[in-house]
Description:
With about 350 residues, this protein is α/β, with parallel strands linked by helices. It has a single domain (about 60-330), classed as Rossmann fold, CATH 3.40.50.1820. The chain is about 40% helix and about 20% strand. It has 12 helices and 13 strands. It has helices at about 1-15, 15-20, 25-45, 105-115, 150-160, 175-185, 205-210, 210-220, 230-240, 240-245, 270-280, 310-330; strands at about 55-60, 65, 75-80, 90-95, 120-125, 170-175, 190-195, 260-265, 285-290, 300, 305-310, 345-350, 355. The strands form 2 sheets. The protein has a 10-stranded mixed β-sheet with strand order 2-3-5-4-6-7-8-9-13-12, with helices on both faces. Helix 4 links the parallel strand 4 (about 90-95) and strand 5. Helix 3 (about 25-45) packs across helix 8 (about 210-220). It is globular. The relative contact order is 0.14.
Amino acid sequence: MELALSALLAAAASLGAVGLKIDPVGYRRIIFEPIRQLSLFLKDLDALRHWKMIRATRIPEPETFRVPPAGTGAVEIVAALYRPVGAPRGTVVIQHGSYSWGRKAALIRLLAARLSEDGWLVVAPDSRGFGDSGAPPDVEDPQAWRTASDLSRVIDHIESIAGIWSNDIFVLGHSMGANQTLEGGLADDRVKALILVGPGRYPDREDLLMPLWERARFSADRRLGACISRGTALFFFSLGNIRLLAESELATPNHKPILLIDGEKEGAAKLAYMRDIVRKLKGPVEYHTLRATGHYCGARSFYGSERIYYRPDLFEPFYGLVADFLTRKASVSEEEDPEAAFEPELRMQWSGSWKRR
């Protein structure tokens, strides 16, 4: 069956030239993406070989709130709110990746629910253009796709809700959301530490970065009517670009603590690319590669359905890294944190974990 799905995906891709000439955005959304998602569903969970290990669950619908637009270029942001029982240990903002269902993706919902059960207040916003959040009126204005101010406005709104505020704020981003976490989390002084899960990584050559096929995905995910221009796309993907930040803000030892997580199934080239970047980073950085794990950390739903399928043997090690990092960094000042006090040496362990100490 996997071979059949691979053949379907290859056939859909081979028809891409036709789709790109007709309607690249519609082709990507209506034909290619459903086939791709089914293929990834089976691949990420390794469902045909390990179906007995897969569990299914439904997460209760969380509260939602709306952050009205304020300021030039602002859009309305809609976010889910997962409240813990009792006083929160801290606040975690989860930023989703580039998938059309936004905050309702399986990994986001499962992670948010688990963190709230463990005492964390969790906020999961839809990024601008995704889910229920608004899109900028001028999509060809490169500045319209900046998201740092959206994160700050979400934090402002949380502060205004009586009875739920906590001083320790962390931001976790998955895929594209990891890059947005770098963009906004480094800029907002209230954010204590960052967690980057499978961040986007972009080649050095601009002509390889933004072909029409990828611009079609950008527009399809955000429900736009046509492909954005190459210039707008290049500007967007320069925001939160970890390769560029490794040569600027992250090249100094006094930046915020960062936990970086990859799955082994990201592929050898992507992992080698990230290892090269991590070697350049200074300061408190931890890098872990989880064995046998894909981009979605063992959690999937097909096209954002209510039922979540996940493999505990893949999700739990991922969750353990996140929970341990949050616990260690909560209520610890820079003066008290030994990992922030000096520039450490990067070590690699056979377990796949990298850490600066």
